Amino acid sequence: MRLLVHRAGGLSLLTRLHIRSHRREAHTIASAATTIRPSTGSNSVQSLTVPYVTAPTIDHSTQQSHVLKVHEQLWKHGILKISLGFADPESRYLEQLVLSLHKSCSHQLPISHSASRGWFWDVRPESVSFQTANHRARSETMEEFPWHTDCSYEELPPRFFALQVLQHDRFGGGTLSAMNIQRLNQSLSLSTQASLMRPEYSINIPKEFVKDPTKQKIVGNLMAIDQESQSCMMRFRRDIVTPLTERAANALEELDACLQTTGAGNHLESPSTVHLTSADFPTGTIIMMDNRRWLHARNNINDPKRHLRRLRWDAIPFPNNGGTISVE
């Protein structure tokens, strides 16, 4: 089973040299990134920024300099915005880019979304037809989707996910919010931090994502520390989590209170949060995110034609102390 390590460490000498040659360029991109919805006040923590790159042609998905730039930004910041300079309704750039990250940077290949779906999942309101038989995913509604990480119910949750905007919300809804988990963790008490790192939580598998009928839930921890970077990681989706002990329940209550003060997609200012409106995240844009270092949320969708396409990849074990248990 593969350990959670810095991906560049296992690369060839040539690839590492390429990565080093692009560090200065990557730093320039990050420094020039636009601050989105910054927090205010003289005592506020430095505002978060979203680094930004462009892909003028689909061929950039296989150009090593571009691929390494994407890898470097994801490793450093855990979030990246890519603007496409061409129409790509079939998401060929995204598919090829992730394949290139697998080939050049040791990312694992994408995961299937369910027993009946492949790599891609269309995130759009569906009134009649569902992408899995008889079950509507929460992403297939126009309702708010509170703070969560993707696939928290998986024994091997994907490290990264990407969302490509095929049609943005034209009526002001569908704001994508992202919360930095390291900063969130700093706002929690030490006892809550410790409790969230214990394997004392039951996580149900939503019906639309059940791949094995004999496996309905797992038991594990919600938070962990990356032993190399010492950054805080998390897996979380409140509506499928049940605490199994009193201390776990108390920790979850404090976490809930902390998340409620930030608001999901409602533009409340917080030093741990950025908000991507349709103006920040228009058609032809891709957002990539480290699924363990950032929570994300969405407010209500106003445009029934809003259409995003999602891809998840690099599924590796979530670090834990006592182990993650599958429960039938």
From TrEMBL:
This is TauD/TfdA-like domain-containing protein. The keyword Disulfide bond does not apply. Keywords: Oxidoreductase. Residues 125-311 form the TauD/TfdA-like domain. It comes from the Eukaryota. Signal peptide: none annotated. GO terms for molecular function: oxidoreductase activity.
